[in-house]
């Protein structure tokens, strides 16, 4: 029981603000209402915060107070028990408003998925019941390509030492999922700990030109003790087909992040063209929105968004169906989820970059003023779409199309 109390203590005042600003006798908002309220609040300050960068402490508290951190937690542990289609839709909606905070939100739910897919029923209760009861925010230090964090056997547990980069959501988090390289077995372990235990230091050193408030700090582990119950995947363990669906959750979070960026760019460009842009003198029209060349470009934007949205929804449904199979999901079924996810990610990737860059062709020179912040859409998309090369997704799709070869499970496929 002492270990469970350690997780519960990750945030002693967690949940205290969840009902702030609401009358005591008023019914709580539905998740859909809470999501819309949160998206509007993030959108109101997104341009200014993009300029500032750093840690968006106030906005993260808004996410916490929204109640949406418990969206993916099963009802058996006090959560909302939402489908992944619902969770991914929430990521997409928030990304329209603020893709950096949508990333933090999505990666919180990715860590919940990791506990559910890798963990035992005991570990589900150990981590997820305090997550709901204390309104805890999860961060990520599971960069599988960075092997500088190592695990050494110590008594019945492990000692963790080293540094992990690209740790999204780590700054300001209550709990961390992380990977550590185990040299004797030549494999990694996956585990979770409270962020504020002795020996863990989070350095807020993220300094990219986009996604500037993803709290993707560097995490240092100095002689950190890891108890057996905190190990989600032991060194040398072969993950089940179901466990490898975690990478598909991650890929679809990114897909919906990109799609949300593209939709946000489209909406901002649409608003600017309708309300602020002036027609080119040679167009012969009174309103910029009546220029046929502008209309043609918006038609192209619309088509790319419709196609990306259809495939993203289809992939989310495939993920839900595979997860509903539980332990009986097969490697082939898992592979088909990966194919659906790769299709969706490629189109969302392309839409985010193309709409984010080409919107200026129809909004004009005045739209480049910093006060509009329209450049943030492309910058955010460009930074995040470099997470893993989309060319390898297309290669996987080519192998499937040509050879009926399903993608091999990796942390990225």
**Poorly predicted regions:** 1-5, 13-21
What's the main sheet like? 4 strands, mixed
The oligomeric state of the chains shown is single chain
The averaged pLDDT comes out at 94
SSE topology string: HHHHHHEEEEEEEEHHHHH
Count of individual beta strands: 8
Strand order of the largest sheet: 1-4-5-8
- As a percent range, the share of strand residues is 5-15%
Radius of gyration: 22 Å
Instruction: Please state the structural category.
Output: alpha+beta
How many DSSP helices? Answer: 11
The geometry reads as globular
Tell me the distance between the termini: 37 Å
- Range of helix content: 40-55%
Which features does this protein show?
413 residues; alpha+beta; four-stranded mixed beta sheet; 13% strand
Provide an overview of this structure.
It is a single chain. The longest helix is centred in the last third of the chain and has 33 residues, at 292-324. It is built from 11 helices and 8 strands. The strands form 2 sheets. Strands 1-4-5-8 form a 4-stranded mixed β-sheet, with helices on one face. The chain has a 4-stranded antiparallel β-sheet with strand order 2-3-7-6, with no helix packed on it. It is an alpha+beta fold and 413 residues long. It starts with a helix and ends in a 10-residue tail after the last helix. The radius of gyration is 22 Å and the shape is globular. Strand 2 (150-154) and strand 3 form a beta hairpin. The chain has helices spanning 2-8, 31-52, 57-65, 84-97, 99-118, 121-133, 245-275, 292-324, 331-363, 375-384, 390-403; strands at residues 138-141, 150-154, 157-167, 175-182, 187-194, 200-203, 217-226, 231-233. Mean pLDDT is 94; it is low at 1-5 and 13-21. Helices cover 50% and strands 13% of the residues.
């Amino acid at each position: 029981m002492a270990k469970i109390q350690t997780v519960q203590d990750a945030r002693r005042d967690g949940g205290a603000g969840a009902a702030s600003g609401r009358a005591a006798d008023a019914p709580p908002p539905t998740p859909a209402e809470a999501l819309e309220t949160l998206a509007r609040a993030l959108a109101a300050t997104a341009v200014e915060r993009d300029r500032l960068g750093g840690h968006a402490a106030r906005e993260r508290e808004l996410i916490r107070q929204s109640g949406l951190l418990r969206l993916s937690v099963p009802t058996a542990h006090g959560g909302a028990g939402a489908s992944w289609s619902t969770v991914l839709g929430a990521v997409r909606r928030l990304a329209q408003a603020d893709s950096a905070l949508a990333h933090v939100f999505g990666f919180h739910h990715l860590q919940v998925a990791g506990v559910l897919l890798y963990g035992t029923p005991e570990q589900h209760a150990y981590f997820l019941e305090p997550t709901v009861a204390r309104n805890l925010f999860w961060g990520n230090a599971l960069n599988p390509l960075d092997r500088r964090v190592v695990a050494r056997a110590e008594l019945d547990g492990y000692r963790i030492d080293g540094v992990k980069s690209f740790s999204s959501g780590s700054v300001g988090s209550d709990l961390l999922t992380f990977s550590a390289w185990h040299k004797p077995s030549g494999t990694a372990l996956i585990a979770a700990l409270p962020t504020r235990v002795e020996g863990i230091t989070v350095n807020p050193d993220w300094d990219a030109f986009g996604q500037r408030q993803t709290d993707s700090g560097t995490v240092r582990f100095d002689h950190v003790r890891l108890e057996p119950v905190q190990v989600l995947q032991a060194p040398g363990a072969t993950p089940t087909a179901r466990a490898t669906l975690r990478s598909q959750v991650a890929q679809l979070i990114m897909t919906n992040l990109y799609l949300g960026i593209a939709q946000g760019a489209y909406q901002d460009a649409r608003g600017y063209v309708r309300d602020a842009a002036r027609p080119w003198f040679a167009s012969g029209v009174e309103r910029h929105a009546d220029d046929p060349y502008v209309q043609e470009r918006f038609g192209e934007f619309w088509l790319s968004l419709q196609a990306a949205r259809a495939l993203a929804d289809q992939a989310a449904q495939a993920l839900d169906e595979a997860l509903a199979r539980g332990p009986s999901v097969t490697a082939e079924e898992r592979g088909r989820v990966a194919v659906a996810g790769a299709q969706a990610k490629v189109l969302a990737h392309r839409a985010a970059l193309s709409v984010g860059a080409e919107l200026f062709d129809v909004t004009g020179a005045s739209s480049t003023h910093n006060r509009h912040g329209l450049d943030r859409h492309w910058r955010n998309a460009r930074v995040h779409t470099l997470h893993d090369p989309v060319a390898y997704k297309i290669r996987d799709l080519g192998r499937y199309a040509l050879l009926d070869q399903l993608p091999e499970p990796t942390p990225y496929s």
